[in-house]
Amino acid sequence: DKIILEEATPIGIVKPNRNKILFTGIGTGLALSFLLIFFKGVYHNSIQTRDELNELTNLPIIGVVAKSKEANEDYLVVDKFPQSLTAEAFRVIRTNISYFAAKSNTKTILFTSSAASEGKTFCAINLASILARAKKQVALIDLDLHKPKQANAFNLKNDIGVTSFLVGKASIDEIIKDTHIQNLKVILTGPRTPNASELILDPLLEDLLKQLKERYEFVIIDSPPVGLLSDALVLMQQSDINIFVLKANYSKRDFVEVAHQIVEKNDIKSMAFLLNGVNANNIPAGYGGGYYK
Length: 293
What we know:
Elements: H1 18-43, H2 50-56, E1 61-66, H3 69-73, H4 77-80, H5 85-97, E2 107-113, H6 120-133, E3 138-142, H7 150-154, H8 162-166, H9 172-175, E4 177-178, E5 184-187, H10 196-200, H11 203-215, E6 218-222, H12 231-236, E7 241-247, H13 254-266, E8 271-278
Parallel strand pairs: 1-8, 2-6, 2-7, 3-5, 3-6, 7-8
Antiparallel strand pairs: 4-5
């Protein structure tokens, strides 16, 4: 069999369909834009800068602390590196503290967070240290009975502390430990206990905090993450200033709403955010950035 090919009929010069190309390009561009927004929302849902945090909340931002090599290696950055960018950031926070609960002679300051690893213990230790360097009498108390870290930070033996006092095995004078930092005392958690959350509800704890207020100008509380445990909610009711720590490039934007709900539903007073671990280039000079660069 033969295949007969018909002669092609010339139709002239074919011009591109400009409208079709235009609309196809616009459609593709919009699709890529929506995909970009989608993936940014999925993979970049964390807070990175103070400005981003400021857009999410009307609560005060008491300070911004830069990510640093020193902070990765040691808790006691203010004490060991007093001229560092981190130390300057905590000086700014120390100044801002004076605007909270101004009429109170003794200020009880609680640190919490939404999740673990946001830096609440680091921030509690360094605020306590910078206050002590200003010749304030400071007591730092570790009330994270589930995962205590203060003993390791100060290289102290956690043989006696809050739990010892609450079960009647030690007096308040016996659980207060000296540190190498002048004007700073620390109270550790003490021996581990299986009923940690119940101990937080013990009336003796409220009595302990009252006695500390009578002895010190500042009482700094390192509490558990409020997003994971109810312990912090109980303690926040007894604090003059509650500082909610967020970590840049780690804490989700939803964590801010967690803090808002805590304030609204539990009538928490004087809540403020502290953004930790921020890229030093993203910190305004007024928040401790730029001065020691």
